[in-house]
Amino acid sequence: MKKYSILNSRVPRVDAVDKVTGKALYTDDIKMPGILIGAILHSPLAHARILNIDTSLAERLPGVKAVVTHREAGTTPYGVSPARYDETIFCHDKVRYVGDEIAAVAAIDLDTALEAVSLIKVDFEELPVVLDGRRAMEEGRPLLHDIYKNNICAEVHWHFGDIEQGKKESYIVRTDHLTSKMQDAAFLEPQSVIAEVDSHGNLTMWSSTQAPHYIQRTLAMALNIPLHKVRVIKPAVGGGFGPKASCSTAELATCLLAIKTGKPVKLTFDREQVFLHSRARHQFFHTMTTGVKKDGTLAFLDHQCILDGGAYASFGIATIYYAGSLLGGPYRLKNMKYDGYRVVTNKPACGAQRGHGAVIARALFEVQLDRIAEELGTDPIELRLKNVMEAGETTCNELFVSSFGMREALEAVRDSAAWKKKRSLSGKTRGQGRGIGAACGFFVSGAGYPIYRSRTYHCTVVTKVDDVGGGVTVSSGAADIGQGSDTVLAMITAEELGLPLDDVKVISGDSNLSVDLGAYSSRTTLMTGAACRDAARDVKRQILEAIAGVLCVPPETLDLKDGKVESLSGELDFSKIREEYLREHKGFIDLPNELCLTFREASRIAFLERGSIVGVGMYRPPPLGGSFKGATVGTSPAFGCSAQVAEVSVDLGTGEITVENITGAHDCGFAINRTQVEGQMQGSMMMGMGEALMEQIIYDKKGRIVNANLAEYKIPTAMDMPHLEAIIVESNEPHGPYGAKEVGEGAIMPVIPSILNAVYDATGVRIEELPLTPERLVAAMEEAKKKPSLQENP
Amino acid sequence: MILPRFDVLVPESLEEALEMLGEHADKGVRILAGGTDLLVDLRRPIIPVHVPRCDGCAKHPGGMVYSTIDCELWLSEPTAHAGGSLRNALQDSRRISPQYLISLHLLRELKGIKRLDNGSLYIGATTTIREIAHSEKVRRCWTALAEGADNLGSPLVRNRGTLGGNIANARPAADMFVPTIGLNGILKLQSLGGERLLPARDFASGPGLTVIEPLEILTAVIYPAPLSYSGSSYYKLANRKALEISTVGVSVSLTLEAPDGPITDVRVALGAVGPTPILAESAKGILLGETPDEPLFKKAAQAIRKDARPIDDHRGSAWYRSNMVQLLSERLLKIAYIRAKRNK
Ligand SMILES: Cc1cc2nc3c(=O)[nH]c(=O)nc-3n(C[C@H](O)[C@H](O)[C@H](O)COP(=O)(O)OP(=O)(O)OC[C@H]3O[C@@H](n4cnc5c(N)ncnc54)[C@H](O)[C@@H]3O)c2cc1C
């Protein structure tokens, strides 16, 4: 591997000190003179017709500056996928879930705003509700939207290869099911928005968002403002994981209130509202039939899925495709059929969440592989190794994997977790309270296409050398939401220009700076990283050309390294430059006296020669994927893959599960920052563990969330976390900068199934419903005792 | 959810606190200890109209009795409590946002753990959960209470939360209240008129409801000195390893005449399986006077199971809870027995 000075290291993140000292400004920290506070009126009913909205009392309350409903907001439909614009800023005809937004208020303080909200009188005609996603499509169910026949918001029918042929070739065929629950992404920072309009009619919105560019477009469209008059700024963000990738009513309503009042308006979600707004993981009902040949070669997969998406489409069109397409890898699978239905129900809308669409599908498929291995009498890791794809192969649904460390990752976790030794024991101790399980994963490294149809560049980066010389400023629209993309951009720039990290300033997350599609689909390191590298190289070329001109040497003989200009062809006579620089800086104390030409001097002289030096980089993936309907979703310039071994112990009486160890390996192509790669892996392990064992949104019969808070919606605490080992695999991705590709989402893929497989090993029972609570486990163990004949052979 | 407006009064003596309580009784006043229950309860949910989740809570804009859902379930459970009277009690017992909170934090006489001359343990009401978890005295002789403290909330909550608050809040799952009943704790209740002592088991009258008088303050809990060959144990069953509300909590204390028995005293208290913590009376009938062994504990556990009156809610089904009461009772009887044998 090439030697780098800063890449592949463990430098601390550029925002670390500000964040740990409380200096970093999150949206809610921003103060402005005269700022008003906004509040939203949410529907108390899951499904009802709106007969009348009376805001007169609220308007008369002293301190209230504006009350807005659909009458002020209009009813321009918007959403995430242009084919399914099914939301309006406020409800006008119906409310479709408890929490649906009906009106908003701006007032002098929060108390007044909330009181005003409570004074808005809405007359409803209650309608019957649809809460069970499995039954939403049935004939005669109440309908949520006129445009969704039988409550079906989207359906996908794919058939690659020939599953009938696959069935003929199969030695073992088995069908399994897995049901999950709607999730909350449980990010630390609730959504927060500030909006302001200046005297030229420019709207600026600060928001805790993952995707300033998409939000800018939605604001412009739904509020009917020219795009260039809308600016979206992303201050420090405390996590997003998907739900902050789409435009929310909070954002739209706050902008509307700012327009109406002419004042800055702030609106910050309460934790309860984070749950009500949701846009997190769908509920999935998967059924898979998988066949393998006698030698363990995968023969076919026949897959059906119902996705309960809540009241609106949101990201759900992408979700339904991802749920099918990402089973194309990481194994050679020639024949695959997929029938997916995304239905709408009277619950908060679901959208994207880490591992978009693919997490539960992956979980079931990996459980199936385990069960098949057991039937075949082979080791589950060996079965997987037999089927893994290699770099250069294409899946049956036309996804090309240009680099692929799947085999390496599996072998790494197998060896590091002492799998062979422990597993050989578990054959004898199956069901005795300790277990070990394995699984793999596969994920995109950046969506191949934007959400709206366009040839747009996915990102551009502009790097400008300080006119005074010495440092550079990188500007990008990329959204650092806590995952560390600013650090990646700074490291890449520092590497290219041979600068210390402290001399690279990164400003980002502002739609005025550049187009960047945002932090979703694990795209930023590969895409914005590539653009950033090119911008830096552009800068470097310009500086070296200018210097070469002054020194009368060919530019190819010069390089930037360790803060200086290096000559590849003997000593340089740079006395002219030094003299000029010193002359310019008479009276300065800290002046260059090195025996070489410093970057500080070179960059200043380059400016004197040529004026401002600005480098531009941009990235747009090549056309990718097949030509079938929906072929674009799942495409990516590169694919990450991962493997994991989980070890658990189970109290066979109470069903309490303790995860003892997780060993994970992820192929990220090349680790720009090793600590950050591990951080993403560890975060994924924690999130996946929560989803496997404890997280679930619970609704009552009327569609109200029973546990809309972090006391009752359980995510793992520090006390629940096991020892984690994160192994980095580097396969050198040809399409990624320096060989890098994703780690943000792919690393979550194997977590749930490895735990499910380990719990099976520990208990001898399989659970088909997540989360795997102690109670479900006890129930399954009791059931198994009753009919031992139906259990798998231990 | 946001907090309503209120003023906090800070008395400097117990007497002053009791006077303030009397003075503001009609304006809505609540006692503030650590605030880890109270401030959560007082918050107003963000959907104003979704507050009346159940009849019993209709008058209350704040989250009642932990979550209004709990309340709804208990109300729909005829055997749990006579529905009507519970409803009324709920309405009367708690005002709409109180105007005043009376903070006990300056009252030194309410803090601390000490052993009384007769060997019993005296814990002031505002002693924090952390202090109890860290007290060697408590752990040695009143182990179940220490184990309750170990597993309450998280370090932050244990630093603030108090024994008195946990008991006065009277949640059926309360991790200090349940072992307090199991250890036969006696509550000291003070009013301007004087003081009264009340066994902890008689204190709760429903979820979040107690027989405390409006002008009384809980000042301390007294745990009788354990006799020789006594041992106790508490187990909190929950879904994650911290920050949890128990699905089931079981506290067992056992006294033997000699290391090999027979059993001379036993108290089994159950949490989260009824509208209040439950003292499982049937344990006594089976265990007293008997020589402990596994079949006996098994039989006792089966009987204890019948004392539980669990319901289905989002934390667990009645079926699971009943099973766990039996399983944990059996396990804890064994643990308490082993401990009892060692405690001369
Ligand atoms: C995140 C979190 C986790 C938690 N986890 C647990 C848990 O695992 N197990 C558990 O049992 N509880 C748990 N709790 C609840 C709470 O922390 C405990 O019940 C705690 O002991 C309450 O004590 P406090 O001093 O904070 O009570 P406060 O909130 O101050 O008071 C509670 C109630 O008691 C009344 N009160 C308080 N002191 C007196 C007194 N001396 N006389 C009369 N009335 C009084 C108050 O008026 C109020 O009604 C948790 C709470 C939080 C916020």
What are its keywords?
A: 794 residues, alpha+beta, Aldehyde Oxidoreductase, domain 4, Aldehyde Oxidoreductase, domain 3, five-stranded mixed sheet, 20 helices, disordered C terminus, B: 344 residues, Uridine Diphospho-n-acetylenolpyruvylglucosamine Reductase, domain 2, 4 domains, five-stranded antiparallel sheet, four-stranded antiparallel sheet, 13 helices, binds flavin-adenine dinucleotide
Structure description:
- The complex is a heterodimer of chains A (794) and B (344).
- With 794 residues, chain A is of the alpha+beta class.
- Chain A folds into 3 domains: 16-22 and 457-619, Aldehyde oxidase/xanthine dehydrogenase, molybdopterin binding domain (Aldehyde Oxidoreductase, domain 4), CATH 3.30.365; 32-127 and 198-239 and 243-261, Aldehyde Oxidoreductase, domain 3, CATH 3.90.1170; 283-449 and 626-792, Aldehyde Oxidoreductase, domain 4 (2-Layer Sandwich).
- Chain A is built from 20 helices and 25 strands.
- In chain A, helix 16 (575-584) packs across helix 17.
- Chain B folds into 4 domains: 1-46 and 97-107, Uridine Diphospho-n-acetylenolpyruvylglucosamine Reductase, domain 2 (2-Layer Sandwich), CATH 3.30.43; 50-95, no CATH class; 108-223, Uridine Diphospho-n-acetylenolpyruvylglucosamine Reductase, domain 3 (2-Layer Sandwich); 230-342, Enolase-like, domain 1.
- The longest helix of chain B is centred in the last third of the chain and has 25 residues, at 318-342.
- In chain B, the strands form 4 sheets. A 5-stranded antiparallel β-sheet of chain B has the order 4-5-10-6-7, covered by helices on one side. Chain B has a 4-stranded antiparallel β-sheet with strand order 11-12-13-14.
- The termini of chain B are far apart.
- Chain B is built from 13 helices and 14 strands.
- Chain B is an alpha+beta fold.
- The A-B interface holds A 42-44, 98-99, 110-111, 114, 117-118, 270-273, 276, 653-654, 656, 658, 693-694, 698, 700, 704, 706-707, 711-712, 714, 716-720, 773-775, 778-779 and B 1-2, 5, 40, 44-50, 53, 67, 69, 154, 237, 239-245, 247, 314, 316-317, 319-320, 323-324, 327-328, 331.
- Flavin-adenine dinucleotide is lined by residues 30-38, 40, 104, 125, 129, 152-153, 157, 160-162, 164-166, 168-169, 174-175, 217-218, 243-245 of chain B.
- The site of flavin-adenine dinucleotide has 31 residues of chain B, from strand 2, helix 2, helix 8, helix 9 and strand 10.
